Amino acid sequence: MLNILLAASLVLLSAKMVMERDNEPVGPEKNTDAAMENIMTRKSVRDYESKAVEDEKVERLLKAAMSAPSARNKQPWRFVVVKEKETLRMFSGKFKSMGMAEKAPLAIVVCGERGGDDYWVQDASAATENMLLAAHAMGLGAVWCGVYPASDRVAEVSAILSLPDSIVPLCVVPVGYPAEDPAPKDKWRVENIRYGKWDNSAATGK
Questions:
Q1: What is the pLDDT of residues 93-133, one digit of tens each?
Q2: Confidence of residue 6 (pLDDT cuts 50, 70, 90)
Q3: What is the pTM for the complete model shown?
Q4: If you placed Cys at 68, which of 40, 99, 127, 135 could pair as Cys (CB 3.0 to 4.6 Å)?
């Protein structure tokens, strides 16, 4: 009798597993769900473990950044990977918003090359967001610390890194393995949406 009950339980468990598997999204739908989950759960991480970030992961972050859209495909983004503790301490000491840089094993400074227009700002910003999403997907933590367009910050960071005049620092992104797990922020606000024209009644799409 016990064997019969065990066999029946196994049959029911197998059937449940098959049903759950069949209900899981597959193909493009599954990929879309994973991408959306990564976007919706990304958060700014400001505390890091002392563990170093592997070089291959740093390269993957940079590859993700360089996969961003670029106006007229000019790709004006430039990157400075900073691992030197003294430089990271300088970022932390000079800028209150970069206090976490001292704890990070590295920071990536996202820059843009001037090219007769300001589209480098959009391009470098898109590259930065790609990098933040890639970091989250790889189990890393990162935070966007703004530099441009604050002229004093641009001058300070440029001096620290000995940047040429043609290269402008957009932001500093400390990166590391998270030593904290902050909750993602829900930023969905339907009142920020308009359809067709700027009309208060258009926020609902009706």
A1: 999 999 999 999 999 999 999 988 899 999 999 999 999 99
A2: very low
A3: 0.84
A4: 127
